[in-house]
Amino acid sequence: MTIAFMWAEAKDHVIGAAGQLPWHLPADMQHFKTVTQQQIVVMGRRTYASIGKALPNRTNIVLSHQAKPTVAPSVLVMHQRQEVLTYAHAHPQQETIVIGGAQIFSLFKTDVTKLYVTRIHAKFSGDTYMPALDWTTFTRQWQQVGQVDEKNHYPYVFECYQRKSI
Ligand SMILES: NC(=O)c1ccc[n+]([C@@H]2O[C@H](COP(=O)([O-])OP(=O)(O)OC[C@H]3O[C@@H](n4cnc5c(N)ncnc54)[C@H](OP(=O)(O)O)[C@@H]3O)[C@@H](O)[C@H]2O)c1
């Protein structure tokens, strides 16, 4: 079973502003789509609201304290961390990828064994930040420098880390 995190952060760990992503970076959207395809994605109710629909070709899990939050019929609503871990355990052939936001990353901090991070080398004002992780327990597996072009204006790097075995 793999519990992964996938996120993009700018300088000072900014990940969100006013319920949305602070940047427009289509190459990162494409990377997100490629990595999460056919996998299980887990998100907080606010992140789901900002996306506004279930992500196609993926099992979508939305965490909420509400009994019946407004979500698409295909979405699995869960209410507790343990419910997600049990589901992930029952589907070991897929990666369970936590896609945010900050509240949900905090919730799974001790469970995560793999990190997909996009580092955007630009400054944005924001109101949501990536929680601190214990980076000493992770090793970088790969890194790919993104291409700056007419559609992707900021320098960015895709990275993947694996939790060191203990
Ligand atoms: N840059 C990135 O990679 C990235 C990724 C994802 C999101 N974001 C950004 O981050 C922001 C949203 O993040 P956020 O931290 O405000 O919200 P969030 O984590 O997406 O969602 C928070 C909601 O999740 C539910 N929740 C939280 N803890 C829970 C628990 N223990 N059990 C059950 N449900 C729980 C609650 O829903 P209820 O209120 O329904 O109870 C809570 O309001 C947006 O700006 C978004 O664009 C950025």
From TrEMBL:
Does NADP show up as a keyword for this record?
yes
Give the matching InterPro entries.
DHFR, DHFR-like_dom_sf, DHFR_CS, DHFR_dom
Gene Ontology CC entries for this record: cytosol
**SUPFAM superfamilies listed in its UniProt record:** Dihydrofolate reductase-like
Tell me which domain of life the UniProt entry assigns to the organism this sequence originates from.
Answer: Bacteria
Q: Name one GO molecular function term.
A: NADP binding
Give all residue intervals belonging to the DHFR domain. Answer: 2-163
Instruction: Report the EC number(s), separated by commas if there are several.
Output: 1.5.1.3
The pathway to which it is assigned is: Cofactor biosynthesis; tetrahydrofolate biosynthesis; 5,6,7,8-tetrahydrofolate from 7,8-dihydrofolate: step 1/1
One Pfam family of this chain? DHFR_1
Q: Which reaction does this enzyme catalyse, per its entry?
A: (6S)-5,6,7,8-tetrahydrofolate + NADP(+) = 7,8-dihydrofolate + NADPH + H(+)
> What keywords are assigned to this protein?
NADP, One-carbon metabolism, Oxidoreductase
Q: Name one GO biological process term.
A: folic acid metabolic process
Member of which family?
Belongs to the dihydrofolate reductase family.
The job of this chain, per UniProt, is described as: Key enzyme in folate metabolism. Catalyzes an essential reaction for de novo glycine and purine synthesis, and for DNA precursor synthesis.
Its name, as the record gives it, is: Dihydrofolate reductase
What is the scientific name of the source organism?
A: Loigolactobacillus rennini DSM 20253
High-level lineage: Bacteria, Bacillati, Bacillota, Bacilli, Lactobacillales
